[in-house]
UniProtKB/TrEMBL annotation:
This is Helix-turn-helix domain-containing protein. It comes from Amycolatopsis plumensis. It holds the Pfam family HTH_3. It comes from the Bacteria. Residues 8-62 form the HTH cro/C1-type domain. InterPro entries: Cro/C1-type_HTH, Lambda_DNA-bd_dom_sf, TPR-like_helical_dom_sf.
Amino acid sequence: MGTRRHGLIRARKAAGYTQETLAIELGLDTTTVGQWERGKSEPLPYKRPKLARALGVTSRGLEELLAEGAAVVSRPSADYETWTDDLDRVAVCLGRQEFDLAKLLLDRWTGRLVPSGDGRGLYLYGRSLRLLGDLRQDQGVLTGPMSARQSYGRAMAVFRELGSDRRVAQLELQLAVLDEMSGNHEPAAEQYRQLATDTRLDARDRTRAQLWVGTALSKAGRNADAITFIKPAIRQFEALEEPQDWSVAFQKLALAHRGDGDLSQAGVAFQVALDHRPGDAPMQRVRLDTAHGHLLLSDPATADSGLKLLEGAAATSTQYGMMHQLQAISGIRRAYERQA
């Protein structure tokens, strides 16, 4: 544990910041500056120029402030192994929508000291931030402080510092997903289109980007165009032996056919998705039931069944804190009520 860095505290107060407002200025969690001032952690290199400007000091002056009272901490290899194990546990928790436990595991590590130049520590820190972004995305916290966009941006800066082009490209893909989720469908489709041929990504991620071009175009009302991207993605997922992505792609195809007015083809595509459902995790159930309910609302004879499916999906979304899914379901209901 370190001692208090009184010089850093004085500089922060002289610049007119509280710990919380300085953290927000730097795009960080509100507890981070307090960790620095207690010597429990220190700013990563990519944040230091902005911190120096905020405090009105030179780079050398900032290093002197940080050196005061700082503890020299080295992580034993066993500590890194524990960190790695915890991140694997986080990934499992996110798959089950166990958000509270995932956040608890991430909080063990994201506020701790990551020594400058420590490649393994930086990599694990970047992975932690990526998972934190995934958590916030699943909860529907897309923009602003403590959001998925903020966490992905911080993770991207870490992986750029490490020279990990693949991880950076994956984060660019996630940021495009946030644009789509925020309603910016055409810009998201263009970002997906570029990433679908980006050699920094592996074949699965490039195919997912191609599928998501279709998803974004379908949401933008360009369903015929969407189908031309979704069908090749289905064939590629089959070639890659990715059954979960393949099944999800049929859900997307069904909704694009529905939007294009072809309910017969929509039903055929969705039956494939039902017959090969990707799993029974809450998020997977909600997405499948939402798509199914949306499709059933297209026919007055099945509309009541569609509404019941949406009601159940909404209840599950509320139970697990999946607010974006809940908003999407509410939007489908409102659109149906306007047409009814």
